[in-house]
Amino acid sequence: MIEAKTRAWWRATAALCLGSFLVFINLYVPQPLLPGLKEAYGVSTLMVSLLMSVSTLSLALALLVFGPLSDAIGREAIMRITLFLAGCFSLALAFAPTFETLLLLRLLQGFVLGGLPAVAIAWMGDEFDKPALLSAVGLYIGANTLGGISGRIVGGGAAELGGPTAAFLSVGAMTVVGCVVFWRLLPTSQAFTPKRFQLRHAIGDLIGHLRTPVLLAAYCLGGINFLIFINQYSYITFRLASEPYQLAASSLGLIFLTYLGGTFGSTVSGRLAERFSPAGCISAGIIILMFGTAVTLADSLMLIVVGLTINAFGFFLAHSLASSWVGRYAQGARGSASSLYLVFYYLGASVGGFWLEPFWRWGEWQGIAVGSWLLLGVTLGIGIGMWCFERRSRQVGH
């Protein structure tokens, strides 16, 4: 097993962080372009938001394929091939002639983007000892945030110069080059034990995970939190593109620098979990997310940015620890257990527009805040339940 802070740990963690960065730069590049695409194609806010929803939906479905498949054939080939194909799809998006073509390409791209997230944490679970896993997951999810930030900033900045075509070309080229580095850095697995793929057993593993309350709680918590968090960013672009702010695409891309709060939250999550209760920290993250949403109700652009930064810190603190929670409590078939967490996670993102759109039509951003708090109250209850389970487990262990 690879121990924390060794040379092998740094190399493997760097490879997976790079892969994570490339996945999320591709996934989120359209987000700052949504207001402009809405006007260009004459579609509704809900319709243009499908550019994000269809990719997260197909990504979620892909996890059901790649997670169990990786338990049978290994993780490295899946991560390498799907990452390269994701870059190719971004290049193809640059030349899409119609909105319908954009949607179809995003649907296909979302599927291949699911390859690395489906198996990366399972790869770490196979190769790293437990302290190394906890630290690596925090850094890996921190790379998620940096990829998300970069996708929006590169997308918004390139679109300002050359429209959506330039945005997709820039990200596609970055991904193809990054793939070469990823392929060279990623070590060959030493601890993986293949399990013959049988559809019946794969379905049985998934059902077994869903029947495990301690895992199901983390799945629901991660999915609902992400439903709120990521779709808040979609609707904030509509708010800030209109009066009195009227921000251009490049400025909307810079709004996503608030994700740096999430980078910090995910990187400190491991240290906080070692000092305090992991489930207690998850609950604290949700409370922070609720507070940040309240701050965004201010009219001041500066306070809106502060509120989004607080949101990112709270969300990624909770997400990092919920993700590692699955790695700790899954009994066998870790690939399918981790992928199932991400299935819930991205399914939440894909349906979030349908939940929040009525609140937007009712009260615009104030409505979004109300819709957010309703569901965050549910996840806070789940987090408290996880904390109670954790306390009981420690008492039994003593």
Descriptive overview:
Helix 4 crosses helix 7 (130-185), helix 9 (213-241) packs across helix 14 and helix 12 (278-295) runs antiparallel to helix 13 (301-329). This protein has 14 helices and no strands. It has helices spanning 7-28, 34-41, 45-73, 76-93, 99-113, 115-127, 130-185, 199-210, 213-241, 249-255, 260-275, 278-295, 301-329, 334-397. It is globular and about 55 Å long. The protein has one domain (7-184, 199-397): MFS general substrate transporter like domains (Growth Hormone, Chain: A). It has 398 residues and is mostly helical.
Quick summary of this structure?
It contains 14 helices and no strands. With 398 residues, the protein is mainly alpha-helical.
What is this structure's SSE topology?
Blueprint: H1 7-28, H2 34-41, H3 45-73, H4 76-93, H5 99-113, H6 115-127, H7 130-185, H8 199-210, H9 213-241, H10 249-255, H11 260-275, H12 278-295, H13 301-329, H14 334-397
